[in-house]
């Protein structure tokens, strides 16, 4: 199996177009001469799509509320763990979750310190938590949309780690 150098999707042997790139010629691949009848490439594309989810839906699931389970499944399950696009989004989602846990710990410590200040401290702590919650929700939704559009949006620091792990 080859991979498309544009999006990272798998390309079946003998295929010259990438199904994930809407049938455009796969970047970096020259047309492969075939002696098979015209129906053979269509059968190959059906077999490559028969593995289950499309790449964009799998990328979206990495950032969904079931993302932690989806990330682990996509990194372990056979047809998905070879796809660089899905691996990137699974790793980036995992690293985002770890970063969010670290931010929650920092906010908890900061909240305890701010709780010493009678009224203003409580208000500042509440505003920090609300800002974090809505910012976190907006980030997850944005990443789901970008993954569904087959874009590999790299977050600062986390995106580079995910790209390194995914082999991009």
Description:
Helix content is 58%, strand content 2%. The chain folds into two domains: 50 residues, no CATH class; 116 residues, no CATH class. It has a two-stranded antiparallel ribbon. It is an all-alpha fold.
Q: What Rg do the Cα atoms give?
A: 21 Å
Biggest sheet features: 2 strands, antiparallel
How many domain modules? 2
In percent, how much strand structure appears in the residues? under 5%
How many strand units?
A: 2
List the topology elements:
Elements: E1 2-3, E2 10-11, H1 39-49, H2 55-62, H3 67-76, H4 84-114, H5 120-148, H6 158-166
Antiparallel strand pairs: 1-2
Helix pairs in contact: 2-4, 2-5, 3-4, 4-5, 4-6
């Amino acid at each position: 199996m080859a991979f498309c150098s544009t999006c990272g999707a798998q390309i079946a042997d003998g295929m010259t177009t990438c199904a994930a790139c809407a049938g455009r010629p796969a970047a970096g691949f020259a047309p492969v001469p075939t002696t098979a009848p015209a129906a053979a490439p269509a059968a190959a594309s059906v077999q490559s799509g028969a593995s289950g989810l499309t790449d964009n839906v799998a990328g979206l699931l990495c950032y969904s509320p079931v993302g932690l389970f989806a990330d682990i499944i996509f990194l372990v399950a056979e047809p998905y763990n070879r796809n660089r696009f899905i691996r990137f989004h699974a790793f980036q989602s995992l690293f985002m979750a770890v970063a969010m846990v670290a931010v929650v710990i920092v906010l908890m410590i900061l909240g305890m310190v701010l709780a010493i200040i009678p009224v203003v401290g409580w208000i500042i702590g509440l505003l920090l938590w609300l800002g974090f919650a809505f910012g976190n929700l907006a980030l997850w939704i944005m990443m789901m949309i970008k993954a569904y559009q087959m874009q590999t949006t790299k977050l600062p620091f986390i995106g580079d780690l995910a790209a390194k792990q995914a082999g991009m």
